[in-house]
Automatic annotation (TrEMBL):
It comes from Streptomyces cathayae. Belongs to the GST superfamily. NadH family. It catalyses: 2-hydroxychromene-2-carboxylate = (3E)-4-(2-hydroxyphenyl)-2-oxobut-3-enoate. Gene3D superfamilies: Glutaredoxin. It comes from the Bacteria. This is 2-hydroxychromene-2-carboxylate isomerase. Its EC number is 5.99.1.4. Residues 9-199 form the DSBA-like thioredoxin domain. It is an enzyme of class 5 (isomerase). Keywords: Isomerase.
Length: 206
């Protein structure tokens, strides 16, 4: 059996995933170009129903108030250490399929990295609501992609089927949070584990 490529699971929702993306692209672009980028999101009721039928249970746990308050403090500290200006978005009616399934379409069209960069910028630097199809349509248009196709990806049965495959992949990989990096049998969870993952990928390449 062929060994799977190194990979990292990211989420547009997570500020830690955003910071890992910034670190990866700023300091480890050679590794970024040699790994698979796979989305992680909290599924809506329709997706959850399909996962349940397939016997897939994702390890997502609702966040406590205490953890939320800690994350607010921790993220501000980490952003300051990186010299990043961030805006904490307000998710009034989050539907994470909107952005993450649009990513799958953009990736199939060969524009996955550009889409990721634009969505992270919209959410964490501009405070936009990426669950709003109009925001995704605007991003797609700026990238020269079909705004209707990307903004309605969450309503396309074929794209949803692709999304189920992505969630099944993270289930099989034992992913329980983001950012999550895997190289062979080695797993690295958290933005502070990125250097170890980078070293592991580079050692394998050497």
């Amino acid at each position: 059996m062929a060994r799977r490529r190194p990979r990292w699971y990211f989420s547009f929702r997570s500020p830690y995933s955003w910071m890992a993306y910034r670190d990866l692209m700023a300091d480890h672009r050679d590794v970024a170009e040699r790994i698979d980028w796979l989305p992680f999101w909290e599924p809506d009721a329709e997706t959850s129903g399909h996962l349940e039928q397939a016997g897939i249970s994702l390890p997502y746990v609702a966040m406590s108030k205490e953890k939320h308050l800690y994350i607010l403090q921790d993220v501000r500290r980490l952003a300051r250490d990186r010299g990043l200006e961030m805006v904490w978005p307000v998710d009034r009616h989050p539907r994470w399929e909107v952005a993450h399934l649009a990513y799958l379409v953009a990736d199939e069209l060969g524009h996955g990295p550009e889409f990721i960069a634009a969505v992270y910028r919209a959410r964490w630097e501009e405070g936009q609501d990426i669950s709003d199809p109009a925001v995704i349509a605007y991003i797609a248009e700026r990238l020269g992609l079909d705004p209707v196709r990307l903004s309605t990806a969450c309503d396309d049965p074929a794209v949803r089927e692709h999304g189920l495959g992505s969630l099944n992949s993270l289930y099989r990989d034992g992913v329980f949070g983001v950012p999550f990096f895997i190289n062979g049998y080695e797993k690295f969870w958290g933005v502070d584990r990125l250097p170890g993952f980078v070293s592991s990928v580079r050692a394998g390449a050497a």
